[in-house]
Amino acid sequence: RASFGTEEAEPHAFFEEDFVDFLYKPHTLFGLFVTLAYLGYLSLGRGVTTTEDNLRYSVLGCSVAFLLYCALQLRDGMLIRPHPVLWRGGDGAA
Questions:
Q1: pLDDT for 35-81, tens place per residue?
Q2: CA 16/CA 11 separation, integer angstroms
Q3: Is the previous residue joined to 11 through a cis bond, with omega within 30 degrees of 0?
Q4: Mean pLDDT of the chain
Q5: Rounded CA gap, 42 and 64, in Å?
Q6: What is the rounded distance in angstroms from the CA atom of residue 74 to the CA atom of residue 22?
Q7: pTM
Q8: C-alpha to C-alpha distance for 63 and 48, rounded to whole angstroms
Q9: Which of 6, 31, 48, 71 fits a 20 to 30 Å CA distance from 89?
């Protein structure tokens, strides 16, 4: 393995940069599974049978699914702090 003149880091040393890099990697599949679990809970896990409550929860589920889609798929804007995914979700809400 070529080191390009830099020293190798200890294999079990924890660097803050590693944790920050984890936040900036794509998590599209994780977001998909979380969304599917949430929508499955909204559709099958509740004991609500009234039409008004079903309508309320279906609108809530669609809104959350759309905002998560926007947070994962929209392009980054000019704002990057605190995290770009928050701003993409805000753009989806707008």
A1: 888 888 877 777 767 888 888 888 888 888 888 888 878 887 777 78
A2: 14
A3: no
A4: 75
A5: 11
A6: 19
A7: 0.59
A8: 19
A9: 48
